[in-house]
Amino acid sequence: MLKPVRISLLLLLFSILECTPLYHQPQINPPEESPYKKIRIRVLTQDRGYPLGGPVDLKLEIENVSEEVVRLNFDSNQLFDFKIYRKGWEVWRWSYDKVFEKAELRLSIYPKEVWTFKAEWDTKDNQRRWVLGGRYYIEGIVNSSPPLRSEQVEIGLTD
What we know:
By secondary structure, this protein is mainly β.
């Protein structure tokens, strides 16, 4: 037989559990489909080989290849970037010496719409030193959240 103290504790526990409101699982919206499947990002250059000391024209194309409007969220007013690598190391970044304002932007790219961003690399590194000849890889980045990256494009610099 249960002692009166144990019975009292069980009754108290039972009353607490009975009076506790039921918590419903909050409705979780399914995550938005990744824009990677709807957006094509590519870097274009005028040539695959350039002389040292000469400018390299860079172009980033962002195309909505879907039939739906794609919304991209940005945490600053920096919409894009270019990075150049050699042997796996970053040599130059377009945004390296620039300042951007923090902002919450939500931009829409409509079906079949193409955004184009251009920049020029003077074949100097981030510390403003001339780079050496050789193979370099260019990556274009859409600075949305999450960032979208292009395939790397290879170019050569020669004397």
